[in-house]
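Case 194 in the screening queue. Each case pairs one protein sequence with one candidate compound; here the compound is 5-O-phosphono-beta-D-ribofuranosylamine. For every case the pipeline is the same: read the inputs, emit a complex structure as tokens, and attach any notable structural observations.

Predict complex for case 194.
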Amino acid sequence: MKRIAIFASGAGSNAEKIIQHFAALAAKNLSPAAMIALIVCNKPGAGVLKIAEINDIPFLVIDKEKFFRGNGYVDELKAAGIDFIVLAGFLWKLPSVLIRDYPKKIVNIHPALLPNYGGKGMYGHFVHEAVIAAGEKESGISIHYVDEHYDHGQIVLQAKCAISPTDTPESLARKVQILEHMHYAPAIALMATL
Ligand code: GRF
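Case 194 output:
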């Protein structure tokens, strides 16, 4: 059984969908090959911590100094038996030590069609504002492996949605979130066991 850690900084709606997906597989006796074993969060009070509590999943609130100047929490992740890492709205760049220890074992979701509209500062509403301002006709999601650059690793899956002339950054965010909730969990279930 592969053990997955979800790293999240915010509301945690993706984390919640992923947890539900794995719980549903287990409930249907589909003997899933992976489980959500840990939530890692850098923000005390973040919504994702509540979600961890409700679902009875252990969580770890991490400290900036230790994350960036220490061991990137590799020892703690190894001690928890973590095999695979999922970023779901985690806003800190991962330190090299962590990326080196989990080669092709870290996945991220980006709320646009990479390589466009990615990189430092391109997160949340900034992404959708830029996409609308550029007059794009479509946007979507990119699920990709994580390397040492923002939003840069190998893309595994993209899904698209159309943008209509009346769309706003807010309405586009809702369309993109539907795609995230639909595709991220099944992609993780496959990738974690490769
Ligand atoms: C999502 O839009 C995801 O694409 C991005 O961060 C957001 C997280 O939202 N990387 P939530 O906390 O899962 O609701």
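Case 194 observations:
- The beta strands are 2-8, 34-41, 59-61, 84-87, 106-110, 138-145, 155-162.
- The chain is about 40% helix and 20% strand.
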